[in-house]
Amino acid sequence: MHNKTYAVVDLETTGHSPAKGDRMIQIAIVFIKDGKIGEKYVRFVNPGQKIPAFIRQLTAISDEDVKDAPFFDEIAAEVAGLLEGTVFIAHNTDFDLSFLQSEFARCGVGKWTGKKIDTVELSKILIPSAPSYRLQDITEELGIPLGSAHRADDDAEATAKLFLICMDKLHALPEDTLNLLHRRSFRLKSDFSTLFYEALKKARTKRRGTGFSTFRGIPYRNMTISKPDRFERLVYPVDDQEKTTQLKKAYPDFELRESQFGFMDAVWKALSAQSEIIAEVPTGIGKTMAYLLPAAIHSIATGKPVVISTYTNHLADKIMEDELSKVRVILGTDVTATVLKGREQYISLGKFEELLRIADESYDETFAIMQTLVWLTETVTGDLEELNVSGGGQLFVDRIRKRSNDLALDEQAADYHYKLLDKCGHSNLIITNHSMLLSDMNRGQMIFSSLAGLVVDEAHQFVQAATLMNETVFSYTNWKYVMGQIASDATGQLLQQVDKLTAQFETDQFHNREQLDSAFVKFLTLFDYAIATLTAFNPSRRKKQQGNRIIYSLAELNYGRNEFSKVAEAMTDYISKAELFTSGLTKHVDNMTRNEQAILSEWDFWVREMTIKAGEWVEVFLDDNSDDFTVWMEKDMRSIPGSLTVIKRSLDGSQLIRKFIDRLKDEQTGIVWTSGTLAIPENERFIARQLGIDDSIPLLTFDAPVHFYEGAEIFIVKDMPDIQQVSQSDYIEAVTDTVVQTVMASGGRLFVLFTSLDMLRKTYDLITESQQLEDYALFAQGISSGSRIRLLKSFRQFNNSVLFGTNSFWEGVDVPGDALTAVIVVRLPFSSPDEPVYKAKAAKLSAAGLNPFTEHALPEAVMRLRQGFGRLIRSSADKGYFIILDRRIETKSYGQRFLEAFPDVPVKKVSLAHMVNELENCYNE
User: Fold this and answer.
1) In Å, how far are 309, 456, 867 from 316, measured between CA atoms?
2) Residues 541 and 632 in one domain
3) 20 to 30 A from 905, CA-CA: which of 311, 365, 432, 447?
4) Lowest-confidence range among 149-163, 334-348, 384-398, 870-884?
5) 53 is a domain residue
6) Domain limits for position 201
7) Is residue 144 part of a domain?
8) Per the domain annotation, does 415 fall within a domain?
9) What is the pLDDT of residue 542?
């Protein structure tokens, strides 16, 4: 590295296509020599055309900035001379280098030749847990200053610093890791092989680093399990003055909140008395700290752990990252905590090592392997969610998940999941998710037993977790993928590799192979016929169709069960032939190389996957237990049969929940249920009954601090068309006009919440086609790339952003302060009458003589709207508008139920023009 000159290049342009006339507006080159940043070359470039509005906004480069700058023709030779003999570096060389090469060709300058390094590719390998690899995200993650993102000079300098940090990380890796990386570096797009080889040569001259162990030649970071010292007995702070004194240790500006202390006392009493409580605790009172403190004190007093359960792994991680350090400061002792997730969340080192020995990796697999090798030198949990892989790499990661507790002795010693289970036994707090907690009922040896207490946060989602516990999903794409792994006869595929082994060890190859092929042809023929039956059927009631997506109950199909039974029989026969095909090889395992053993193990793995699929087929298509489940099919008319999915889901999870809770009560464990939304007017025990909580257990409600919602207002736009009286297209046009006017009046920072992805797409498309919001950053769930967390992060980074979201954005999303100033509710969040789960539940309620609308649809929708309002005000300093476009909230008799569920906030029924006027006045001030 030290004897080369690296040229770090960044370009700003009018667009992405020089062939279509896009031109450069700024170029920056930062040179690295001897491992240090040196000279810089920065020039504005006259593009000979107006800079588009979006580019002006993105780069803050105006037409005025470039009007006196040289055209690129005038400096092309100079730039080419500067780059000659250097290693070209850019954050996405596919763009910067290809654009530059096109411009060189246009200007009659010879193309640049040499080695190139893409820092996107490099940082993905060496910083495999970064949440995002956009330059402004990765630099923020690493603490690299980035003055103005999308300015070539600042971007080039930040990229140069990113490259140097990557080099430091590369040179800190163990020799064995570098050796495994170097072997694969030749398959990448960038010229990394020299970088890895130089690092490997240096590593060979250094002493082996401490802090690492090795599993079959793969280095991994040691996980230390510290057993806590004996604690001094902690006394729960009974009076308000004691509590305030304690909390001020972590929150110097802490102000007493009666509801927080009231909830804290309720948690302490429930845990101490080994009783059960259910408590609604709104945003703003410090709910998480109010249960963590008594839980930690109670655990230390009893010497047993308290379990904290949340809905998602993300929320569990946030408690660990954001709150535990404060608990330790407040209590002045090392409160121990472990985040525990499901077994398949963690890496199987045995499977990973096995796959490294099987050749013919794709680019995505090679890349995921390199990321995993580096990640293993960093992770102390083995949680695969830490890895940020993309594309086909995710398929590889799914292959290395831990699926069994049956491990070889050396793998047991290295297994992260085993170590975390051991760590739980020495922890005061075990933080987990609802699904993990409920699945404890199905384990031979239960994890969550002999507890000091249980706190279930986001308790309303415990119902959803329980109904999903027994969900079975048939995915055509997934099935074909599994079938392809074991049945493909293409060169280099698994079947051919196993075939060679049977020939090499002279087992009964030809007879068994003939039987295998015949069994597969029969199975595939019957499978394809059954799939054709599913894809050919279209429901007669077209209102179930959402755009190209069709959803309908499988009961409507009235399919020939006999044909589906034949598929199950043929599949079982094929699986038995697949097992027979390799049965003769098992006695030769000791004479096989490790690579040959890996091939055999890989075959066994896919045969087991096929066996699981056979069980899914019976469960979904042939099981008669229809009272407690509903089965429905989804498909997209644009991609048949690829989009075909059939889902079987439980209708009621309360029995499973009570079975779990009764076991804890038998062990005399205190239980706390809590959430920000548990009670609604006229049906306050709606969630409690779904949880199976006895009516004798009181529902405690705590109020938000006085003045907490002072900054909030609710607008009902009274001149919107009635959603039930106009066509969907007319309503979407009205929504589009309202969103555009609201965004322009407020300057952005809005959520627009939908109940249907189809309506979201159509509204988003109409807004983008109109180009009225081209100066705003628009992000849409299901359209913009990235997960929910990534969309949120992108939303926060722009002052003028708008986020279009569906169900998952109605709750569990935290955007405090000025980052969110308004929420627009497009329609009241009722479940569709044709949504399969709702339809099945409604049928059961009707059969029991109950009204499905008042007993289920209405309270569920009121609960969701409350959750949507909760996105807006996250602290007493927040200000914002909650805008409802669905006029049913004022025209229908049930509308009052929605309004009564809101906190004490002004509700104004206004015209769109009046609302826009108020917003403009507010934001102009």
Assistant:
1) 7, 11, 19
2) yes
3) 311
4) 870-884
5) yes
6) 173-209
7) yes
8) no
9) 45
d(CA 916, CA 900): 25
Q: Say yes or no: 72 and 123 in one domain.
A: yes
Q: Say if residues 786 and 758 touch (Cβ distance below 8 Å).
A: no
Write down the pLDDT at residue 765.
93
- Per-residue pLDDT tens for 438-475? 888 777 677 888 899 999 999 988 988 888 888 899 99
Phi, psi for 645 (deg, rounded to 5): -140, 135
Bond from prior residue into 641 cis (ω within 30 degrees of 0): yes
Question: Integer distance in angstroms from the first to the last C-alpha of the chain?
Answer: 56
Taken in order 346, 140, 785, 190, the sign of the CA dihedral is negative
Please choose, from the candidates 686, 712, 685, the residue with its C-alpha nearest in 3D space to the C-alpha of residue 700: 685
* Contacts of residue 286, Cβ cutoff 8 Å, sequence gap at least 6: 257, 260
| 95 and 159 both lie in a single domain | yes
Distance in angstroms (rounded) separating the CA atoms of residues 274 and 271: 5
Buried b (16+ CB within 10 A) or exposed e, 218-252: bbbbebeeeeeeebeebebbeeeeebbebbeebee
Distance (Å, whole) CA 858 – CA 830? 7
Inside any domain, residue 479: no
Q: Is 586 helix (H, G, I), strand (E, B) or coil?
A: helix
pLDDT in tens, 490-517: 877 889 889 888 888 877 666 788 899 9
Distances (CA, A) of 543 to 446, 571, 793: 47, 36, 36
Residue 648's DSSP bridge partners are: 472, 631
Question: Which residues have C-beta within 8 Å of that of residue 123, sequence separation ≥ 6?
Answer: 130, 133, 138, 162, 166
Q: What single-letter DSSP state applies at residue 231?
A: P
Task: Report how far residue 655's alpha carbon sits from residue 469's, in angstroms, rounded to the nearest whole number.
Answer: 12
Neighbouring CB atoms inside 10 A of 820's CB total 24
Q: Which tokens hold the place of 521?
A: 């042809």
CATH code of the domain in which 893 resides: 3.40.50.300
Per the listing, tokens 């699986």 go with 575
Pair (547, 604) in one structural domain: yes
